[in-house]
Structures are given as structure tokens and as C-alpha cells.
UniProtKB/TrEMBL annotation:
<feature type="region of interest" description="Disordered">
    <location>
        <begin position="416"/>
        <end position="443"/>
    </location>
</feature>
<protein>
    <recommendedName>
        <fullName>Protein NO VEIN C-terminal domain-containing protein</fullName>
    </recommendedName>
</protein>
<dbReference type="InterPro" id="IPR024975">
    <property type="entry name" value="NOV_C"/>
</dbReference>
<feature type="compositionally biased region" description="Acidic residues">
    <location>
        <begin position="354"/>
        <end position="368"/>
    </location>
</feature>
<feature type="domain" description="Protein NO VEIN C-terminal">
    <location>
        <begin position="458"/>
        <end position="554"/>
    </location>
</feature>
<feature type="region of interest" description="Disordered">
    <location>
        <begin position="344"/>
        <end position="398"/>
    </location>
</feature>
<dbReference type="Pfam" id="PF13020">
    <property type="entry name" value="NOV_C"/>
</dbReference>
<feature type="compositionally biased region" description="Polar residues">
    <location>
        <begin position="375"/>
        <end position="389"/>
    </location>
</feature>
Length: 576
């Protein structure tokens, strides 16, 4: 049976930068008035009841950025659009992919030439394109996998990558072939992992042209078929435009590695009669149901395929990293509430490989190691099992100062809080004498909560200090612009506070807090090291110590690899 192998009606940069941003900052971010609560409420809210908003809204849903339709599709029996119902109930009908799309689109509107944001859009394209698919004999297929399969074979025959015109023609041929009745030309050969012998062009004059796959370059160079002579020519354009096509964008990102890995897995599954790994997402969209979102499905779906899972995690980590650049592309002082809410949605669960610390700045493991060397006790709850009997050791309960107490303390000791950093000295020699091994049981949930609370308190302390310092220096204008970004936006930026020096230059502060002394070791992440190198002298690591007693801090400026002695304490591990 014939299928519809794609549904692109716009360039994705147009959809993301313009329509999606306008919707999330407008009709999708507020409860509609009474007259806009019907089936056509979204179209009425945007002021256009024509086909344009309906088409764009349908594409947004099918690309996976909407959790439910906001316009009822023109099919028999379709129910009230669940996405618009969510808006009526005060909920934003965006998936996590939609929030990523909004943040990237919003930043690109303000900085369209930023290469980091362009990289983010390329990563986004490689995830959006996974939603473009069709059903054949009850099984879902991703159009991009079949296209890449044909691309791989032709590239191998030519001994080179296809040029832009060849990719455009190949896109038209794959779409025309898939949408025909001739499954044996491409789909059946993809499933069986056999060479593709021929494809077809469906021409505007109603004729069809079959040609050998390896003969495509001659058709392109000889202009035997004009680039606008085949049916669905716009589909091929939105797919393969050299600078804006969704496939061309995906191919520029590391998402192409995910696509290549997914081909191998999907072929094995298809050969054994098993479903597409993204079946749940594709099914829900096809049936006009609430979309669970690809991020909530992919990790579990790919878990039995280590190579595929690795590529997905690396792609998600790159998207997360590239999206961080959007934070500095948008003015934090004027960002709309939905922008901040989107950042929180993205950072609600940090992607694998992003190396985020989840706000934990007090390092119990390091302090426990230090205490064991020095023969002292730690502040963590432990159960000693060394003698065969369990003995609960008393826990040192440390009360953190209140916010009011911290503000009063800063006001009274503003000039005394900041200290010079320690003078670099030779590493302390640790005695080779080993203590008696002991087994411990640690309440990790309680420890994480304790660390997070301490980390947030330390960040609040430094945030208030920066505000008061600038105010005391007569720079109230700058004091009002200091942002506690890890609280307002979320973790993973590589710094916690954006502040200013007295000359108005931005500085980026990463806060590490401990209740122990100034020499206590602490953890820094790969991301923080990388960001410190990128920011250079505008980066500060602020080490807060003796926090619960008499808080003080010192600052280290610039690349962390130059101002700290870094030691490897853990590895990112994968099953080989």
C-alpha cells in the first residue's frame, strides 16, 4: 500500500524560531478567554482561522514538540484537541523536546549568527527527524533510516559523499519510491539488508521514471530531470536544502551517528518481526493521543543496545551543552517567565554524560577520607560492622544559618568575608600506615538532601554578598542585575551566579561550600573545567568554608586546570 513518508511543510528553523516561540510566549502560556475555549480556540487566539496555523500546529505535534494536539485534525471521530484542553486547564502542552526547541528558537531570534546556537539547532534536527515515519503492514519505519541506507550505498559506490544536488535528488527519489506501491524497490531491501537496485521519480506530468541507484549522479549532472520536475519537490527541499533542510542539519550533528547505529538495530528488529523502538511515541502521535515524549521513551527503549544507547546519550548531552549557550544569548533581565520555566523543564533530569553535580557541593566522601587519615570522626551517619556487631555512631547535626542571619552577617562583616586564596604548597605527605578496614552503611538520600541544602545555602550567601558589595560600591544598577542562575534556570551551566565587577564586566561564579576548613578538598566537574577555560579571567571559583560557624570564602580566577591541582577520582563507565 502507498504511504506518506513525510509531512514537512516548513523549514524547522522557521517553525522553531518564529511560530513556536510566539506560541509559547503567547496563547500556549496563558489560560484562554472564554470565547477561545472551543475546538478552534488556538486559531482564534493567534488571530488566524485559516489553514496556516492549523498546518503548522499539526506539524509541531507530529514532530514531537507538543504533548497533545492544539487543533483538532480533520479526521472522522477526532476528539477535542487534548493539547488545547491542557491550555484551558492552565498547563503548557509542551514536551521536553518542545522546551528545548523553544529555548534554542528564542536564543536564535536574538543571536541568529551564533555558531553555538546553530549547532544546537542541528542537534535538535537529528531528534525531530526521528518522528518522521510511516506504517507499512502494521510496523513503523523512520523515513530517515531508509534515506540514510540509500545514501550509504550510493556514497560507497561513488567512493565519496554526495554533493548537495545529489542529496536533493535522492530525497525526492526516496520519498517518491516510499509513497508508491513498489515496496520491493526500497523498503523490502532495507529490511533484508540487500543492495538497492533502482528507485523512481514521479514526475509532474504524471509519468514515472525508474532508474538505477548508481545512475543518479548522471541524472543530476546531465539535468535529465529538472530539480522541480518531480512530485513532492517541496518535501525534498524541506528535507535536503543545503543550509536549512532537516536532514542536512541532522547530518551536520553527531546525530548522524545515532541514525547509522539505529539502522543496524532497526533492520535486525524488522527481520525478526519486532516493533520499531520508538513505537510508543509514533503510535501516540498517529492516534492523536497524548505524546509521552521521546526523552521519556528512548533511554529505556535503547537500553538493550549499548552502541545505540551510547549514541543517544552523547547526542542528548551535546544538545544539553549546546543549549547552555542559549542562556547567555538571552537577556536574563528581560526573559519571559516561560523561558525560565523551560530551562527548569530541561534541567529537571540532567542527561547522561553532562557531568553535572546536581547541586551537591559538600563532598562527604572526600571529607570522610580526610577524617580517616587524620583519625577524626566525620559528620555523616554510619553503622560500624567491623566487629560483627552493629553500632550506631552518633551523628553530628549541623544547623545551617537562616537567610535572615546570613544577610545580617554579610552586612556586619562585608569587608571581612572575602579572604586571599591559600598559597600553593607542596602536597601533604600521607602516612603509609593503613587503618583497620571498616564497612559502613550510608543513607545516600539523606546525604544528597543535606549536601543540596548546604550547596544552596552557600550559593545564597555568595549571591547576597555580590548584591551588597555592588550596592556598597555605588553600583545599584549592577546589583539589580546579579542573577542566581542555578536557582532561576537550573544546573549544568558550569557556574551558579552571574555577577559584575565594579566596571560593569560580567563575572561567572561557581560556588563550592563546606562546613569544614579552607583546605578541605572538593569536586569539580569536567563541565566546570571546560566552562572555566572558555570564560577565562571572567570565571571565578568561590570556595566558601566554615559555613555554619563563621562563613568566609576565597576566590580563584580563570581556568580551573591552572589554579587547582586536579586529581581523577571517578570515571564515566560503559559496558563494552
Amino acid at each position: 500500500m502507498a504511504v506518506n513518508s513525510q509531512f514537512l511543510f516548513f523549514y524547522i528553523d522557521e517553525l522553531v524560531k518564529h511560530h513556536w516561540v510566539d506560541w509559547l510566549e503567547g496563547p500556549l502560556a496563558k489560560v484562554p478567554s472564554e470565547e477561545h475555549r472551543g475546538e478552534r480556540g488556538f486559531q482564534l487566539a493567534v488571530g488566524d482561522t485559516g489553514a496556516g496555523p492549523r498546518t503548522r500546529a499539526g506539524e509541531a505535534y507530529q514532530l514531537g514538540i507538543l504533548s497533545g494536539r492544539i487543533v483538532r485534525p480533520r479526521i472522522a471521530g477526532a476528539s477535542f484537541p487534548s493539547g488545547w484542553q491542557a491550555v484551558i486547564e492552565g498547563r503548557v502542552p509542551s514536551t521536553k523536546l518542545g522546551y528545548y526547541s523553544y529555548v534554542i528558537g528564542r536564543a536564535l531570534r536574538e543571536n541568529p549568527s551564533d555558531p553555538n546556537l546553530d549547532r544546537a539547532l542541528d542537534c535538535l534536527a537529528s531528534i525531530l527527524i526521528l518522528h518522521i515515519g510511516f506504517q507499512s503492514d502494521g510496523r513503523w519505519f523512520n523515513t530517515v533510516l531508509l534515506f540514510q541506507y540509500a545514501n550509504n550505498q550510493l556514497s560507497s559506490y561513488l567512493g565519496r559523499q554526495l554533493n548537495d544536488d545529489e542529496v536533493r535528488y535522492l530525497a525526492a527519489a526516496v520519498i517518491n519510491t516510499l509513497d508508491s506501491e513498489e515496496n520491493d524497490l526500497l523498503l523490502d531491501r532495507y529490511v533484508a539488508d540487500l543492495p538497492i537496485e533502482s528507485l523512481r521519480f514521479d514526475l509532474n506530468d504524471g509519468k514515472s521514471l525508474h532508474f538505477d541507484l548508481n545512475g543518479l549522479p548522471d541524472i543530476v549532472s546531465d539535468k535529465k530531470v529538472g530539480i522541480n520536475d518531480f512530485q513532492k519537490t517541496k518535501a525534498a527541499l524541506f528535507w535536503a536544502d543545503p543550509s536549512r533542510g532537516i536532514y542536512m542539519r541532522a547530518a551536520r550533528s553527531r546525530g548522524i551517528r545515532l541514525i547509522q547505529e539505529l539502522i543496524k538495530v532497526d533492520q535486525r528488529l524488522a527481520q525478526s518481526g519486532e516493533s520499531n523502538l520508538l513505537n510508543e511515541v509514533l503510535d501516540s502521535i498517529q492516534n492523536n493521543e497524548n505524546n509521552p515524549g521521546i526523552f521519556s521513551v528512548a533511554e529505556d527503549a535503547f537500553t538493550d543496545f549499548p552502541g545505540l544507547l551510547r549514541e543517544w546519550q552523547d547526542l542528548e548531552a551535546e544538545l544539553f551543552d549546546a543549549t547552555n549557550k542559549a542562556v547567555e544569548a538571552v537577556d536574563l533581565d528581560t526573559a519571559p517567565p516561560i523561558w525560565l520555566a523551560s530551562q527548569h523543564e530541561i534541567r529537571g533530569s540532567v542527561p547522561a554524560g553532562s557531568d553535572d553535580e546536581s547541586g551537591s557541593d559538600e563532598v562527604d566522601e572526600v571529607e570522610a577520607e580526610t577524617a580517616a587519615i587524620e583519625g577524626s570522626t566525620t559528620a555523616t551517619d554510619e553503622v560500624s560492622i567491623a566487629s560483627g556487631t552493629q553500632e550506631k555512631k552518633p551523628s553530628k547535626k549541623i544547623e545551617l544559618p537562616t537567610k535572615e542571619a546570613l544577610r545580617e552577617f554579610i552586612e556586619s562583616e562585608l569587608d571581612e568575608i572575602s579572604e586571599a586564596p591559600p598559597v600553593t604548597a607542596a602536597p601533604t605527605e600521607v602516612s603509609g600506615k593503613k587503618g583497620k578496614p571498616r564497612a559502613t552503611q550510608t543513607d545516600f538520600a539523606a546525604k544528597e538532601a543535606r549536601n543540596r541544602k548546604l550547596g544552596e545555602a552557600g550559593e545564597y550567601f555568595v549571591f547576597q554578598y555580590e548584591v551588597m558589595k555592588l550596592t556598597a560600591a555605588g553600583r545599584v544598577d549592577l546589583a539589580k542585575r546579579v542573577k542566581w542562575v542555578s536557582k532561576d534556570i537550573g544546573d549544568g551551566l558550569g557556574y551558579d551566579i552571574r555577577s559584575f565587577d565594579q566596571d560593569g564586566n560580567e563575572v561567572f561564579l561557581e560556588v563550592k561550600t563546606t562546613n569544614s576548613g579552607r583546605a578541605t578538598p572538593f569536586f569539580v566537574s569536567n563541565n566546570e573545567v571546560a566552562v572555566s577555560e572558555e570564560k577565562g579571567d571572567s570565571y571565578r571559583l568561590v570556595r566558601v568554608f566554615n559555613f555554619s560557624k563563621k562563613p568566609r570564602f576565597f576566590s580563584l580566577t580563570g581556568s580551573l586546570s591552572e589554579v587547582l591541582q586536579l586529581e581523577a577520582t571517578s570515571y564515566r563507565a560503559r559496558v563494552v
